[in-house]
Amino acid sequence: MKALLSQTVSTLFGNPRDEKLRRVIELTDFEAAQKQEAMAARLCLSFGTYRRHLTAGRDRLARWLWDGLRAAPPNPSCPLRIRQIG
Question: Taking the model in full, what pTM does it have?
């Protein structure tokens, strides 16, 4: 699941203007070994900006996953089917 989410984040936030969102999500959700204040400092962001980017990134990821689940045709043999990006 972690590999799928990591790949999804890389693709969903592949646009150069989304670089900060991608970095915040990857650092927080895939390498969460520090407090958020320390991660904000590591990314050279104020804590408020870090939290704003984290919320925006997680919201976009959740919306994409939810839309993919709603759009997938029902398949009893595969209860969790997410559409491909692109």
Answer: 0.69
